[in-house]
Amino acid sequence: MASRLIAITGGIGSGKSVVSRILKVMGYAVYDTDTQARRLMNQSADVKARLVTCFGPEIYHNGLLNAHRLSQIVFGNNEALSCLNGIVHPAVRCDLRQWAGRCQARYAFVETALLYESRLCDIVDSIWKVTAPLTIRVQRVMARNGLTEAEVLARIEAQAAEDRVNEKTHIIVNDGIEALLPQVMRLLK
Q1: Could you give the CA distance from residue 130 to residue 12 in angstroms, rounded to a whole number?
Q2: In this predicted model, what pLDDT tens digit does every residue of 31-57 receive, in sequence order?
Q3: Residues 42, 95: contact at Cβ < 8 Å?
Q4: Gap between the Cα atoms of 20 and 41, Å rounded
Q5: Tens of pLDDT along 119-175?
Q6: In what order do the strands lie in the sheet with 107-111?
Q7: For the whole model, what pTM was predicted?
Q8: CA distance 65 to 184
Q9: Listed residue (165, 164, 137, 129) closest to 153, CA to CA
Q10: 15 with 128: CB under 8 angstroms?
Q11: Contact 50/86 with Cβ under 8 angstroms?
Q12: Of 141, 169, 166, which is closest to residue 155 (Cα–Cα)?
């Protein structure tokens, strides 16, 4: 197992994916929870069966998750979202532990927007929190995802509970003033 598992987290539009890409280019292993959650929802028989039990067979089409249909069901429905998270978060934690167990590097990284909600905070050694001013985050997400300002602000508000800092947290500022690479290099040392 990697000697240290480090979380890369931050709100939508903060730049956590950019930090992850920098680390990948440098040769580090990075586990992307969003990608792996989608993989598990499409490939894990147990996860698929539990999702069908909770949401019905219409969330799958030809064996693949209909993410649009699932999002329609859970959006604005706290009970449905809680059911989804109760299935996916533990599956991702288990998969991450297995992945980290196979890593032989000194450091391995996990990219996640929901570090605390998913309880991944319990299994990481350190946290790199990527931050950016709200206006920059909103502009980035509007340009990247084609969302309106109101839609972006709603997503940022939905992640507000994740905005924590503790003794394991190191901050990376992604405001366009200080370059990311030197900050990443300092943390690696």
Answers
A1: 10
A2: 999 999 999 999 999 999 999 999 999
A3: no
A4: 23
A5: 999 999 999 999 999 999 999 989 998 888 988 888 888 777 677 777 789 999 999
A6: 29-32, 107-111, 4-9, 126-131, 169-173
A7: 0.88
A8: 35
A9: 137
A10: no
A11: no
A12: 141
